[in-house]
Structures are given as structure tokens and as C-alpha cells.
């Protein structure tokens, strides 16, 4: 289903506390604590665009992102989604690294969502999955990313723990931090999430809390459990009403909870919903960056 959000439509005035920054090279307040992933502009990437959005904006590739984010949003920290890589060949990774360096940008994390399941029952499948995540750790080293996010998967928790323990050893050997997000696997139970961290780590293995992935009923209680162990936060918005109010949860409260839990790291903003929304995603990005920044203590 395609939903239109008139407040965020191109060319219409913005109200209800939404501001637009469009001036180049303007440093963001709290810029060292702000980043943005490529998920928010997924409809502009050939690999993830939706046929339901006829005019998603000009096409993007990862080679474009560092300069674009710097010019349009004043951001120097970016996060890449695995779907948006064209390959992991050395020549392509070298071009990506050069684009980051040319823009004065830093890759802060890679979200690994390729075909793997670290909790699979089949041992061959688990071994292949471990090797897949380790390929992305190798890519993170080349690109200068300090971390990768790997999903525990679905299956026996003991298999997920054993797989992540092995991957964590590999990550430590390569000086890469390993992150687990609440990302629709067995770790959606926050107690299981923390057990995985404790038994597969805890050294070098941290949570990556995502504001938008829990159910409305579980959200705040679950976040409260995993926020104290966060290395990075996915500051996710889902959808907005016609007046520009975020639904279905209090986004600002999520940031405030993270700050109260003592989080001092980076918030990587993104938007995701299973329904396609016809709106100006640059303005959504402005909203996200503004609302995170307004709620930071330092």
C-alpha cells in the first residue's frame, strides 16, 4: 500500500516543529553523535527501490553517499546497509574507501542482512553463515568501519551463541566491534538478547538498540533492558500523520531513555516501515536529526 504524507511532500511548507536544513558545509550541533544510514533512502537505490513510489528522487549509490550526506545534511558519519553494496571485491571496496576519504567522512557501521542464519540447526548452514559474516568483517577493515551488525538468526539459542562466539573471536582479531540489534530473530526477547551477549561475549559484543523494532506493548520495557549495553543506536522513525507527528511511538522519549541510561555514543537515524510512504525523505531525515539533537545531554 502507498500512503501519502502531505506535510513531507516536495514543495510544500513544513509546520509542526519540522525544520529543513539545506545549506552546505554547515556543522551539525552534536555532529559527533549523529550519523545516518542508507536505509532511509532505500527507494533511491536500484537494489532496494519500490515500484510503488514513482518518483523516489535521484538515484543513489554508496559511492555518492558520503559527499551527499556531507553537502545536504552536514553529516560526516555514515552507516551502510549490506543490500546497497555492489560487491565485496577489493577494487570496489577501494573506491568506496576513496569516496569516504574524499568527503572527510567516516563509516561507523555495516548492517549485515545477507543470506545467513547463525542459529540454524544444520551445521553446514551455520558454518556457511559464520563465513558470510566474517567476509563482511574483512570489508569493514578495508573501509575503516569500527563495527558490524550481525543477526543471531532463528533457531536454538545455543547455536546462535556458539556461532557468535566464534565470530567475535574473529572480530577481535581484526579489531572490529560486533553488534547485535533487536532485529526480528530470537534476540527480540530482550532477556535472550542479553544472554547471547553475555555468553558469546561480553567482551567486544554489544547491543544495537533499534527504537522501531519492538511491539508497541513491549517497546519501552525492552529498550530499558538493552540500552545499558549499547555501542550504537538505530534511531528509527516509522511513519507520520498528516500533521507531521511521528507514529506510533514517542520518538523523543526513546532518545531521552538512552541518555538517561548513560549512552554516550552515536545515534544513526533511519526510517523504515513495511508500507511504502510517498513523502520527502530528506525532510524526514531533517526531522530525525533535529529530534535526536534536541534530546542529547552532551
UniProtKB/TrEMBL annotation:
PANTHER family: BLR5974 PROTEIN, HYDROXYPYRUVATE ISOMERASE. Residues 73-289 form the Xylose isomerase-like TIM barrel domain. InterPro entries: IolE/XylAMocC-like (IPR050312), Xyl_isomerase-like_sf (IPR036237), Xyl_isomerase-like_TIM-brl (IPR013022). SUPFAM superfamilies: Xylose isomerase-like (SSF51658). Gene3D superfamilies: Divalent-metal-dependent TIM barrel enzymes. Transmembrane segments: none annotated. It comes from Actomonas aquatica. This is TIM barrel protein. It comes from the Bacteria.
Amino acid at each position: 500500500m502507498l500512503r501519502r504524507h502531505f506535510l513531507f511532500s516536495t514543495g510544500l511548507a513544513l509546520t509542526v516543529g519540522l525544520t529543513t536544513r539545506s545549506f552546505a558545509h554547515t556543522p551539525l550541533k552534536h555532529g559527533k553523535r549523529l550519523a545516518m544510514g542508507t536505509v532511509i533512502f532505500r527507494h533511491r537505490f536500484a537494489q532496494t527501490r519500490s515500484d510503488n513510489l514513482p518518483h523516489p528522487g535521484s538515484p543513489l549509490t554508496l559511492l555518492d553517499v558520503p559527499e551527499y550526506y556531507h553537502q545536504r545534511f552536514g553529516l560526516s558519519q555514515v552507516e551502510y546497509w549490506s543490500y546497497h553494496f555492489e560487491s565485496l571485491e577489493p577494487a570496489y571496496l577501494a573506491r568506496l574507501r576513496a569516496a569516504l576519504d574524499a568527503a572527510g567522512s567516516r563509516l561507523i557501521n555495516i548492517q549485515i542482512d545477507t543470506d545467513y542464519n547463525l542459529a540454524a540447526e544444520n551445521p553446514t548452514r551455520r558454518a556457511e553463515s559464520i563465513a558470510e559474516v566474517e567476509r563482511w568483517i574483512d570489508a569493514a577493515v578495508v573501509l575503516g568501519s569500527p563495527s558490524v551488525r550481525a543477526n543471531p538468526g532463528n533457531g536454538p539459542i545455543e547455536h546462535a551463541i556458539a556461532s557468535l562466539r566464534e565470530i567475535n573471536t574473529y572480530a577481535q582479531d581484526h579489531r572490529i566491534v560486533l553488534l547485535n540489534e533487536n532485529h526480528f530473530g530470537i534476540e527480540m526477547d530482550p532477556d535472550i538478547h542479553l544472554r547471547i551477549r553475555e555468553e558469546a561475549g561480553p567482551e567486544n559484543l554489544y547491543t544495537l538498540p533499534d527504537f522501531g523494532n519492538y511491539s508497541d506493548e513491549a517497546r519501552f520495557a525492552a529498550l530499558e533492558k538493552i540500552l545499558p549495553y549499547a555501542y550504537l543506536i538505530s534511531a528509527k522513525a516509522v511513519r507520520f500523520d498528516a500533521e507531521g507527528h511521528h507514529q506510533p511511538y514517542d520518538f523523543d522519549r526513546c532518545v531521552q531513555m538512552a541518555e538517561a541510561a548513560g549512552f554516550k555514543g552515536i545515534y544513526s537515524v533511519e526510517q523504515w516501515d513495511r508500507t511504502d510512504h510517498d513523502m520527502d525523505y530528506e525532510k524526514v531525515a531533517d526531522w530525525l536529526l533535529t529530534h535526536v539533537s534536541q534530546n542529547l545531554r552532551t
